[in-house]
Amino acid sequence: MILIDGKKTSLELQEEIAKEVKQLISEGKKQPHLAAILVGDDPASQTYVTSKVKACDRVGFKSTLVKMEAYTSEQKLLEKIKELNSNDDIDGYIVQLPLPKHINEQKIIESISPSKDVDGFHPVNVGRLVLNLPTYVSATPYGIVHLLERYQIPTEGKHCVVIGRSHIVGSPMSILMAKNTNLGNCTVTLCHSKTKNLKEHTLQADIIIAAIGRPNFVTADMVKQGAAVIDVGINRVEDNTTPKGYQLVGDVKFDEVSKKVSYITPVPGGVGPMTIASLLQNTLKASKKEI
Ligand code: NAD
């Protein structure tokens, strides 16, 4: 069994990005610039945004953090987005989700200029993904693609079962795995909460991508010997023996599944660390006007 090291792969990718930034700057080109809008004071969102800004520093990007109060009106946020859309120095930006309840998230996503939508959530970018056109692929699925590539996990002609159909993970993942490209060419089955006899599907899978949000959901009896398993889930499970009172576990019952598979991602340290590296890659593409 090969343990897929997302932390190491993410750092390697960031080093490559940093090298490219140095090169761009030495050629007199513009320093890539990522902005992030954070509305409110949700602790998890603050942590995510802070680590994105730190990652920008690491690779030599310029970053701008726009903090707005939790009571900010939808109108005020739309005005800020308009400002970022027309600011030529900003190559790409994200609006950290979730937003406070009084703000319509979809309306906000649709107001972001597709050419600066480095999260890849805008309908134009999702449409371009479906049509196999150059686009910003949202960070988590993009990170998984990198892991499969770097670990040279064969995909062509394989059967991939994706569990979960969310807009940010499961659905784009199923599209990427079925694409007629080097990484892709799988036969894909997309399973979800209404799927009957899930185990019958997963037992057919050469590759399982689990994005459900339920701790230890995928058990060894659901997995074919020698399959590759990508665990996207990040679930907090109460554990009074740890200082924080909880531990993070994935959607896959790691102890038993890891004994049967050819490749597996751990949680934490698998898919999670790849997300930031992918966001940086999208920003680099934006600064080079590749999309
Ligand atoms: P979501 O709640 O939006 O979607 C969950 C999906 O699971 C749904 O499509 C649902 O149909 C499916 N599902 C629920 N119960 C099921 C069942 N019994 N059988 C089959 N399918 C079932 O969640 P999401 O945003 O896609 O996130 C999924 C998990 O991935 C969460 O644990 C989340 O924290 C984690 N996540 C991790 C990263 C990362 O960077 N590693 C990024 C995003 C999400």
- What ligands can be seen in this structure? nicotinamide-adenine-dinucleotide
CATH topology of the largest domain: Rossmann fold
Beta-strand proportion: 15-25%
Write the element-wise H/E pattern from the N-terminal end onward. Answer: EHEHEHEHHHEHEHEEEEHEH
Helix content: 25-40%
Number of strands: 11
What is the overall number of helices? 10
CATH architectural arrangement of the largest domain: 3-Layer(aba) Sandwich
Structural category is alpha/beta
Q: Stretches where pLDDT falls below 50 for ≥5 residues?
A: none
Oligomeric nature of the chains: single chain
Biggest beta sheet summary:
6 strands, parallel
CATH homologous superfamily (4th level) name of the largest domain:
NAD(P)-binding Rossmann-like Domain
Distance between the termini: 37 Å
Report the mean per-residue pLDDT as an integer: 97
Question: Over all CA atoms, what is the radius of gyration?
Answer: 19 Å
* Number of separate domains: 2
**Could you give the order of strands across the largest sheet?**
1-11-8-7-5-6
CATH first level of the largest domain: Alpha Beta
How would you describe the shape? Answer: globular
